[in-house]
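Section 5: illustrative case.
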């Protein structure tokens, strides 16, 4: 019997253990990134769609008065979007769905948009944007939306190749 055989077997089993640990780590990371589990540090029963109390984007709440409160007619202005003319204005009253689907209030002819991609709605006196578990995500000021966020004048919303700016008239 060769004296190197037990060492060889031990190295093979060690490699398999490291390989399985790596695969478990990849699966756990993918599950967390896809929203399959509660974020680290979040309390049990945490609703990932709930708006955090300090969700003011890139803005300080103290400089905006009441955290981006609506003081006029909120609207989305098309910066660039397939099938839309730049400068087109969409008034935001009530709940608005953006997407490729027929039931979307703002229809996007964008191959990167889901049928029901994002939702805009009023919560109190602010307008909130929420990604509806879209495939390619919704970006607010080039930051991927993880939770619903309030909109502030000048914010840019991007869905695929479509980009809008938020204004208050």
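Designed sequence:
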């Amino acid at each position: 019997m060769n004296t190197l055989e037990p060492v060889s077997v031990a190295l093979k089993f060690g490699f398999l253990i490291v390989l399985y640990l790596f695969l478990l780590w990849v699966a756990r990371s993918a599950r967390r990134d896809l929203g399959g589990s509660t974020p680290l540090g979040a309390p049990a029963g945490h609703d990932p769609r709930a708006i955090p109390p300090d969700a003011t984007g890139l803005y300080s709440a103290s400089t905006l008065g009441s955290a981006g409160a609506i003081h006029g007619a909120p609207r989305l202005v098309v910066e660039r979007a397939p099938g839309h003319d730049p400068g087109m204005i969409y008034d935001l009253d009530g709940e608005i769905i953006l997407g490729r689907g027929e039931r979307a209030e703002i229809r996007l002819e964008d191959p990167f948009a889901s049928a029901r991609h994002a939702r805009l709605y009023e919560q109190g006196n602010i307008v909130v944007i929420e990604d509806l578990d879209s495939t390619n995500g919704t970006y607010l000021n080039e930051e991927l939306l993880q939770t619903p966020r309030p909109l502030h004048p000048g914010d840019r919303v991007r869905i695929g190749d479509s980009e809008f700016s938020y204004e208050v008239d």
